[in-house]
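2 proteins. here.
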Amino acid sequence: MNEAQLPLPEPPHTFRDDVRGFFAFARRDHAMRLRLSVAAGLALGAGLFLVLRQIPQVADLVGGSGRESKLTLQFPPEDDHRPRRNVDGVRVDSGSENPRLLSVMVENMVDARPISGLAGASLVFEAPVEAGITRMLAVYPASSDVVEIGPVRSARPYYLDWAAELDALFAHVGGSPEALARIPLMDLDDLNEFSRGRYFWRSSKRSAPHNVYTSTEVLRQAVLDLELNSQPDAGRWVFKNDAKSADRPSSQEITVPFSSESYKVSWQYDRDSNSYDRYQAGALHRDKDGSPIVAKNLVVVYTDIEVIDEEGRRRIRTTGSGQAVVFLDGKAHEVEWRKKDNEDRLRFYLSDGDLPDGSQVEVEWNAGPTWIEIVPKSTRVVYNE
């Protein structure tokens, strides 16, 4: 007798069976198909929205395409509260306010023109040397990018005092006997082309001695190679915001007659930019690359200047105190200059006429380049109020 054949057990019911059954029913029901289509469209739209929201942030992480999305564009506040750079009052990121300073002796002889690099300086001292010619000590933050500075010329004793007060690297080509004798006695980071020639170059397009140049990049390398102090130890001036446009005069002109017409300097105030354009020998003074030379602040310092030898070299008193005129915001202020010793910072104080109570306070400067013109007490500097 054959055994009865038992029925096979049914496979267990799964979620997959439910899904297949649901879609089989949906294919037969028109209303259900419509509901599914709407739901799928909503889900797809929501997904695309979430993806597109992330695109600007992803572009930022990889550098973007150079165009800013309106979704990520942020405008800086009207008032910049970052710290001011010590040498010129320019707003910089925190930690960058006290940069290493580089100073360079730059000549101004007619045969040396056009000069390179003055338009990029944060601070310039201009003073007479032999024969009524002027020479400049141009000062730069080490972080600046000035590709050519010069022609670089020889040192004079008074320029050493201005470099020392800033604790600046002092770049030059030789110097007068007095200057060269003083340099080893001073706490000065000296960079003489005669002994450190690799940090200068001589242009084949200019004749000697007007053919020596350097740059901020090369001078930065000198600071590293010679293991010099990375930051200066110089006192800072007091800086302020520019005067409001409504408080600025329409014009102002200052004329500094150093000697002959070739060295006659004038500064013309521009109300819109609240700055002074430099003119020399009757023409707008431009760097060799065409950049105009502009100052936010201008100072005329009166001091004792005398000729000391047959070569016409000068002795200029840099310490003590004396009269000066500060020009900023289109206005002139008679002030007193003070410098206690060679390494003390040159400072300027408002005179009694500027303050109702007769007290003196330090001048507050505009942020940007400052030019200091050093002249004998007998010089007649002409300017309008």
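next one coming up
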Amino acid sequence: MEFKFLHPRDEIIEIINRIYMNGMTTTSGGNLSILDDDGSIWITPKGVDKGSLIPKDIVRVFSNGISDGIHEPSSEFPFHLAIYKARPDIKAIVHAHPPALVSFAITRKIPDTRIVPKAREICGKVGYAKYALPGSDKLGEVISDIFKQNHDSVLMENHGIVTVGNSLMHAFQRLETLDFCARLTLKANILGKVKVLSNEELDLSRKDIALDEFNPDNHTSKEKEIRKNIISLIHRSYSQNLVTSTEGTFSARVEDDIFLITPWGIDRKYLSEEDLVLIKGNKREAGKQPSKSVNLHKKIYNKNPYINAILIAHPPNILAFGVTDAKFDSRTIPESYIVLRDIPKLPYGLEYRTGELEYPEITDFISESTPIVLCENNCIIVTGNSLLQSYDRLEVAEFSAKSVIASKAIGEIVPIGKFEIDELEKAFDL
């Protein structure tokens, strides 16, 4: 979807729908705005159900204060106006009440975005604004003062979150990523002490990948089917919170050294078949930029001819084990052990050090008996002989981790015993 061609009304509706459907705000909570080129502000209305807004509900407030629309502008309009005046570079604002971030707001803490590699870069500097009456000019003063200090995301004491950007999508991605950090931190704290990354470790994720281009002679029916299947599963994974709009890479082998991979820098919710990048040997499909993990995918395929699909995802429950010292035990229910086997946790950074001789390769840890690895403070890498098998493994890993974390509220898990494991391995030829 090309947001640059959407009318501000339609853009706001698209993003508020995502926020509401992702459980980041309520019927009456939150507000979004866009600063137009003429200085007018398009904003969500006051007192209208956020779950059923349509374009005609969006209100336009001109620079002289006169509004145009069938509703009144949001009661929080004063702080939107104050932020725009304080920071001329800001073109859009998102305010919402995601439960995980509200939990930080009511304990008066800020999520640490160094918990995963790219969050700090996406969210920008995160600030904290003292409480002031909602809808008041005072609230506008308090929040705008924090944004003046070059913060791009501001947690509001006992209230919610405000994120800004050079576009509404930019502001939304900051909200989504900061919320992910908050959810991940909450789950991880149940398991143990949360580890964060150093500046040197964060720099590892910024490596660029250079590949020559090629123009495919044709696109086979097999390739087209794989494109369709990847897109179907990446959309499903987004709706299930297994990936975010900015993070998550899926690939599938077409044949030998040819595979398809998701692109870099395109929102996962809106990916289409034509966005996927065909990789052939050391070349990429002309005019497209593949995920920066493309070389890792290539190495895994080259070493493991039985692997036909690789999913790199960021599900918050299984990743909670990756940001703490807690060990994930798959011996919970038969399905978990059969599908997942043991999942090794690898030191942070191996996924970025492909080809550096002084470090072990991730491919050294992946085999038919170990189809999944968990990368500390980053992601889970899931492999399989098909896209569906890989996706099932991804889902089972996240569901199993969610059950283990939830069990902490009632007691320690009692894993399946050795006798039962031996029985399962014989019965299912594991």
